Amino acid sequence: MPKAQIKEHASPESALTDWVNNYSDVLYASAVKRVSDEGLAIDLVQETFMAAFQSYGRFEYRSKPKTWLTSILKNKIMDHFRQVYRRKETSIEGDFQMFNEDGTWKTENIPTPWEETHLLDNPEFIDVFDSCVEALPERWASSIRIKYLDSDIKLDDLGVSKANYWKMLERARTQLRNCLEVNWVKPNK
What we know:
This protein has 189 residues and is mainly alpha-helical. It contains six helices and no strands. It has helices at residues 12-35, 38-54, 65-86, 123-135, 138-149, 162-185. α5 (138-149) crosses α6. The radius of gyration is 21 Å and the shape is elongated.
């Protein structure tokens, strides 16, 4: 892209001010989608702008500022998930051998099918689902978000073994299903 099409700034401060005004909302929406926590999303966007300011001298306008900032934000989100997976997890007791190696339900554990379809189009269900995910231990909730809600994050980037990740995901899905059975299915019967 020719430099003439990109607004030149007199200083890093003026560039950052312009970028904050133009890209904060987009970056915030992206962060909330990935981490499902508004406060954390705000912090990640702020960290993104601080990192952009600190490394402004290396930005060569080979890409648009929005692209560069989005890349920084994705790295900040990955750093967050790496920290989550490094923390010691508290355990929830119970038998969690409910899934096969491929992640499907074992035959004897297949839950009763729900009669309602298109639940992801139902805002009330989404609210219950979100609160059930939030009730999970942080690493388990992150497992659900990574597996089902954010395909940009790769298991190799987390620094956790595949077996450990799948065990957390298995436990998270079991607890999530139980929470939804209690808070969604039964109240609607």
